[in-house]
Amino acid sequence: MTTISIEHRWLNNAGRGYVTRQSVPFMSGSSLYQSIDYARFTEGSPMPALLKQAKDISAAALSFGAFALNSSIAPSSAATRRQQVEALADQIQGFLASPYLDDCDATEAIMWAAKDALSFIQIIPLQIALPAVSYTDDGEIVMHWSQEGKRAEAAFPGHGKFGYAMREQGGFVAGNEEGSPSAFPRDLFAYLRQ
Amino acid sequence: MALVLLNPDQWKDGDFSSAVFSRKRLKQGAQSVCRVAHSTAAEIRRHVVGPQIAKDPSRTLVGGAVAICEDIRSITANNGLTRLFCVVDAPVINGKTGDYLGHAHLGFSEPTNVDGFWNLNDRTAALAQLTDAFRKFTVPDSLESIFQ
Q: Is B143 inside a domain boundary?
């Protein structure tokens, strides 16, 4: 079972406080996020109705007291990542109905490109941030990473393969491996993980 | 040369769209760009921005991005010799007159049209490099600043 770590910072009126941490089983993606957001209430504010109704673990954690000022999920938890991947998948699927596609060829091409891109985002290692995604009007899907001065791109034309490149020493350098949607290239992993 | 940036086609979420250049149009040698020295902001609004927004009113003008032609022409294949892109003046297209004088076309170069030329990784690097060439100056810049 997937577990997540929740950290609560408790403060009293004088601003003094302590931290509690809980490892709890992941139960429901959407209700979890909802409750974490609602944990950001301040002393004296009414408890939101949705929180009262929530049946998931973060509501249970809040029953410690009413002074929680901040609450956060540990980054890169498998549960959080799963939600991010689902959101990215929704975005990619949304491209299929885009009014900006050129023609019927583009409409067909992007279906195959989306199939590859959807497979690929499932296998992006947890240590690597999820990319931004976009598409060309002729039906190719492009992923883009931009972080701490590093940039990388991966292009999915829908042939069951993808191309990728990384920016090094002022220019983009082609990847060393043949990109397959079922395997994250080792050189891209090493580059983005640094 | 300048590229007009419309949201969401060429510009999205505060940066170039990853898909700023249409692969098909590059292959056809028909990716429209504008010669800065031979265009005016009014012409660009009339011949580029207006028609694109008329086709789809959800598009919005963001501004433009400028690249040096030489930078684009210097993007080469791994052999360091074969130029990958070319820029051709295109004030008249398919016999249609009335287009603006500074209209030019950007495209993949002739040698790249040979079957098997492109390795997918090389092509991805080349296109990313092409986008990079348009990051040299302020991006996005207003049309009035670019076409003075």
A: no
- Residues of chain B neighbouring A134 (CB-CB closer than 8 A): 12, 17-19
Nearest-neighbour CA in chain B from A93: distance (Å)? 16
Domain assignment of residue B147, yes or no: no
ipTM, two decimals: 0.84
Domain count, chain A: 2
Predicted TM-score (pTM) of the model is 0.73
pLDDT along chain B (148 residues), means of 10: 90 79 89 92 92 89 95 90 92 65 92 91 95 91 91
- Domain of residue B49: give its range: 2-138
Chain B residues in contact with A169 by the CB 8 A cut-off are none
CB-CB neighbors (< 8 A) of B7 in chain A: none
User: Which pairs with CB-CB distance under 8 Å and at least 24 residues apart come from A95-102?
Assistant: A95/A133, A95/A135, A95/A141, A98/A135, A99/B56, A99/B58, A100/A137, A100/B8, A100/B9, A100/B56, A101/A135, A101/A137, A101/A138, A101/A139, A102/A137, A102/A138, A102/A139, A102/B22, A102/B24
B-interface mutation test, from A172, A177, A180, most B Cβ less than 10 A away: A172
Residues A92, A49 share a domain: no
Does B69 reside within a domain? yes
Cβ contact, residue pair A163, B123, below 8 Å? yes
- The residue of chain B with its CA nearest to that of A161 is B120
**Domain total in chain B:** 1
Residue A57's pLDDT is what? 36
A67 pLDDT band, cuts 50/70/90, is very low
